[in-house]
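Milestone M4 deliverable, item 7.
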Amino acid sequence: MANNMLSQLKPPAGAVKKRRRVGRGPGSGLGKTAGRGHKGQNSRSGGGVRPGFEGGQMPLQRRLPKRGFTNIFRKQFEIINVGDLERLAVDGVISVDILRDQRQLSKNIGAGLKVLGNGELTTALTVRAHRFSQSARQKIEAAGGKAEVIDGDR
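Output delivered:
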């Protein structure tokens, strides 16, 4: 293989088709009406119907039954796992501000930070978060650390 093969790359034969040029006279086979037929909504410029329109028939989207609801009071927590805390330890204390500085959390953390118990923890850490899962709390305390719940103010 030559060293300059990258500059000689091209698509395989038959992979690239020429663009169909419509409305270019009778010899092209797509002159005059340009494949749109005679008259009607779809022959006009700007014609056609919106997506989902079924010609006045009740559209499928409206025929199907609706299920469930959206809870407008839902609390969306940012989550982090115990296993992720191991490599982020700064002086044995981990808080929302530290996680934000290390770009582990977004600026807007919604309802707060919740620590989940996925992974292992060997370092004694003081973790300050809004919520802890039961397994996360057990793993933090088993490693000799503390799980401190902070209030809703961020």
